[in-house]
Design goal:
Helix content is 56%, strand content 5%. A four-stranded antiparallel sheet has the order 1-2-4-3. It has a two-stranded antiparallel sheet with strand order 5-6. The chain starts with a helix and ends in a 39-residue tail after the last helix.
Length: 571
């Protein structure tokens, strides 16, 4: 029966993304089905959002359908099977005929009505996060469809800004670690169970076995990082894993570099990442004669391995050259960097405490929008490898708590706007589990001020957890990926599991409460409440009139120019 349900979900999604012929790639992470789309115009956003199993959609480098933890891992194989079956019989997709327009194309979803001047300047919308949200006078209420269109426009605009070489590189680095998250979670939970049994003195004969299960992956994580790095950057994956394996080889302790003996695991995931990147470059030089990224090369740089000897010499030179550089350079340097990261994280929370947590929790969502949060993934992994947990993730998770509190405040502040309230009700369960995009891009960000007050909730929640870190009650996570309530089984610190769990739960409560209060009392002006607190099918509020049939709506009263996508641009 569950298989039938998952297959039905996959069968419902496939035609709404343009069919199998419109897909260039299929993958999934912890909560999302990630699809490469050939023709974006064939995707039916609103119909997808209306499916019971879909918690939301997010457009980034891939089209991401939020299904939630557990569900996505079961739906994806069914989706892949259906796509494979239909590719042999399905004709290639034909682009939708674009309706003739006289102006720029809007970001309105296919099923939504065409935007009018009433919908082009919804009250409280800010062009960018952090900008002051000035209320505007409009001729009608904002609906969930309009907010979703504005959220999509903001997302697309931010995505184009994030397409810089540095941010694209960081995204590729994130792609290396995302496939490791399920193993980190599984081993982290086993480690938590093992710690609980050890503290209680139960099942002493089982504890060593659980310790081996929990620690086995972490002892070899450098190999997996090296494998994925080579795969991501176009090299032979197994060669990336081979050079990374040098770092964890026990016999490395007999090698001396920079006047000191190396230790197995020295350099950790950062060393493995650097070694695999170098291996990819050496391998490509062997085959192409030019180091990747060099448009011109000297004569000596164009020497390449003869094709007849490629199968023998290329892997040998790749492993030998990269291995020597790793042993006599990268391991030492990466080890120093890893140690510095761990020491700095501990010092920051031991001395900065509440202030550091306040800043990290408050700025995390803007970092996500700027694409800079991906730089934190190797740092999290390094801390887990060194200390057994990352002290940063529980603080950053408070940002999602602020969004949940803000969304509840919006829900209560707009009792008559059924459209927005329906969106919030459908997105809140995912928000409690740490999946915040439907609330961010569907509610708080398009409204402007609620996004800022939600960040304030995350700041206070982060400050609370940071304060306890400063007082000596460290709160960490044994894995990356989960957030919100989904992080409860993975919390770990220097105190008992119960104490750590209570501190994290209280931090979430502070984030919820602050986000709620800040949004309820400061997230809306009186004019915004007047303009927004109407159902889309109900009569207009005081001060507005309903135009007669066939009469074009009056333009927005504000003299501020409006972007064609419906986002107000301050003049």
């Amino acid at each position: 029966m569950p298989e039938d349900k998952n297959r039905a979900t996959a069968a419902a999604i496939l035609p709404l993304v343009g069919g199998a012929g419109n897909l260039t790639s299929i993958a999934h992470c912890m909560t999302r089905l990630r699809l490469g789309i050939q023709d974006r115009s064939l995707v039916q956003d609103e119909a997808l959002k209306a499916l019971p199993a879909v918690l939301g959609v997010v457009e980034d480098d891939t089209y991401q359908i939020v299904l939630g933890p557990g569900t996505v891992a079961r739906v994806t194989p069914e989706f892949e099977r259906l796509a494979e079956q239909s590719r042999s019989t399905e004709p290639p997709p034909e682009p939708k005929a674009a309706a003739p327009t006289t102006g720029p194309r809007t970001a309105t979803p296919p099923s939504a009505p065409e935007p009018t001047p009433e919908a082009t300047a919804p009250p409280g919308t800010a062009a960018t996060p952090g900008a002051s949200a000035q209320p505007e006078t409009t001729a009608g209420p904002a609906t969930a469809e309009e907010l979703a269109a504005q959220g999509a426009a903001l997302k697309a605009r931010q995505k184009s800004r994030n397409a810089t070489p540095v941010k694209l590189f960081l995204r590729r680095i994130a792609n290396i670690f995302v496939p490791l998250i399920p193993a980190l979670i599984g081993c982290g939970i086993v480690a938590g169970i093992n710690g609980l049994l050890t503290n209680l003195g139960w099942l002493p004969s089982v504890v060593p076995a659980l310790a081996a299960i929990a620690s086995g992956f972490m002892s070899l994580i450098a190999v997996f990082v090296g494998y994925n790095t080579a795969k991501e950057f176009g090299g032979t994956p197994v060669l990336g894993g081979a050079v990374a394996a040098i770092i964890v080889f026990p016999g490395i302790s007999h090698v001396t570099a920079f006047g000191q003996k190396l230790a197995p695991g020295q350099g950790g995931v950062l060393g493995a990442l650097a070694a695999a990147l170098l291996a990819v470059r050496v391998e490509k030089w062997c085959r192409n004669g030019v180091f990747p990224g060099r448009a011109h090369a000297r004569a000596w740089g164009r020497v390449r391995v003869p094709e007849a000897l490629d199968v023998l010499l290329t892997p040998t030179l790749t492993v030998l050259v990269t291995g020597l550089v790793t042993i006599f350079g990268l391991m030492f340097v990466a080890g120093e960097v890893s140690t510095a990261i761990g020491a700095f994280a501990g010092w920051l929370l031991a001395h900065g405490g509440a202030f550091a947590g306040f800043i990290l929790g408050g700025l995390f969502l803007p970092l996500v929008m700027l694409g800079l949060h991906q730089a934190l993934i190797p740092i999290h992994t390094t801390l887990i490898e060194q200390q057994g947990y990352t002290v940063l993730l529980p603080i950053l998770a408070m940002a999602g708590a602020g969004q949940v509190g803000a969304a509840i405040a919006v829900y209560l502040r707009l009792p008559r706007n059924r459209s927005i309230r329906t969106t919030i009700k459908s997105a809140l369960p995912a928000g409690f589990l740490g999946v915040g995009e439907p609330l961010i891009y569907g509610v708080s960000l398009p409204l402007g001020s609620p996004f800022i007050t939600a960040c304030l909730g995350g700041a206070f929640g982060g400050g609370f957890v940071g304060l306890f870190n400063q007082l000596g009650d460290t709160v960490g996570s044994t894995a990356i990926g989960p957030s919100g309530w989904a992080l409860f089984p993975l919390v770990k610190g220097n105190q008992s599991f119960t104490t750590t769990l209570v501190v994290y739960a209280l931090g979430l409560a502070v984030g919820y409460l602050t986000g709620f209060l800040a949004t309820y009392f400061f997230g809306f002006s009186r004019q915004m409440r007047t303009d927004l607190n109407h159902d889309s099918d109900s009569p207009r509020g005081p001060g507005t009139t309903t135009p007669a049939a066939g009469t074009p709506p009056a333009p927005a009263a504000s003299g501020t120019p409006t972007h064609p996508e419906g986002v107000r641009i301050p003049g």
